Amino acid sequence: MNKEYSLEENVQHGTKERPLTIMNFCTGKGTSYPDHFFVERHWHYNTEILKIRKGSYKAEINLETLYLQEGDICMINSGELHLLEGIGSHTLHDALIYNQSILGFSYEDEMQEKLIHPLLSHKLVLPRIIHPSDTGYKQLNHRVEHLIELGEKKTDDWYFQLKLEILQFLIDLNRYGLFISSADTATAFEKERIDRYKRIVSLIEDNYTSALTLQMLAQAAGCNPQYLCRFFKEIAGISPIQYLIRYRIQQAERLLGNTTKTILEISLDSGFDNVSYFIRQFKKQNGLTPNEYRKRCHLDLFQ
Q1: pLDDT digits (tens, 9 = 90+) for 208-220
Q2: What residues contact residue 112 under an 8 Å CB cut-off, 6+ apart?
Q3: Are 71 and 52 in contact, with CB atoms under 8 Å apart?
Q4: Fewest 10 Å CB contacts: which of 89, 116, 293, 301?
């Protein structure tokens, strides 16, 4: 399982001058995903275009479960809650991730008014999936392949070309009538659930070293503790307090692998004020004590 991403992804893709990147993800021995590809539920304010090269995947976008097959193009809009999991151990996909703000123009021409502004204001959103059998796939797939090629080759003017190609991709989507009104993507109730879920996990991840209680989380969510536990578990599969403990353990894993701090120091830095409780919870989640986990991390470095 890849734990690099939590909920709100705090990763910069590209640079300030060129805020986009191309990433390739493969599975198997010697890769970052030896068993299968998995990225936990998270969101970011970039737009993401995925091209499935090999195998199949289960995706979840704003709590809707989708299945992706070889050849599919999947699009994740800015701010959408999503996860991605490979089905089986042999998968391969490419991802173009870019800051949607780069598409804006200062001059309010027809393109800005009818296409770019509605996208930036989230009145229009990209479609979820384009299958090889869909109308327009050949042209759109050609655009995506060219985007990936430009991002990988990185010639002197690659960023200029890639930005223009993204705009052309959006024009093609518009030509084939594939944009979706944001009003049609989820009900008000579903949007509130997603927003509430984001608020709770953001509060946990921003304040995991503090003494958070279920009552405090419920207050932040604007609901009672019983409802919070029920709706949170429906989405995450665990309670908010279990999520808090799991997140604290993940921070402890990072410190164990990257620092020489003592177990007591790591316990406190991860939000546990009782080292015995920390050790019990750590072993419950990992099957190893913190010391055993640290030794295994160091062995892996030299293998």
Answers
A1: 999 999 999 999 8
A2: 104, 105
A3: yes
A4: 301
Cα distance between residue 33 and residue 296, in whole Å:
18
> Helix, strand, or coil here: 182?
helix
- Tens digits of residue pLDDT in 146-185: 999 999 988 889 999 999 999 999 999 999 999 999 877 7
Distances (CA, A) of 44 to 7, 111, 122, 154: 8, 26, 14, 24
Instruction: Determine whether 260 is exposed, middle or buried from the number of CB atoms within 10 Å of its CB (0-12, 13-18, 19+).
Output: exposed
Closest CA to 234 of 29, 9, 60: 60
pTM of the model: 0.82
Burial class (CB in 10 A: 0-12, 13-18, 19+), 118: middle
Q: Which amino acid is at 250?
A: Q
| 3-state SS assignment for residue 46 | coil
Q: Using CB atoms within 10 A of its CB, is residue 269 exposed (0-12), middle (13-18) or buried (19+)?
A: middle
Cα 135 to Cα 60, 132, 173, 176, 184: the distances in Å are 24, 8, 10, 8, 21
- CA 91 to chain CA centroid, nearest Å: 18
Q: Enumerate the H helices of 154-239 as residue ranges.
A: 158-175, 188-206, 214-221, 225-236
> What Å distances lie between residue 210 and 47, 205, 225, 286, CA to CA?
32, 10, 19, 23
Residue 18 CA to its chain's centroid (Å)? 20
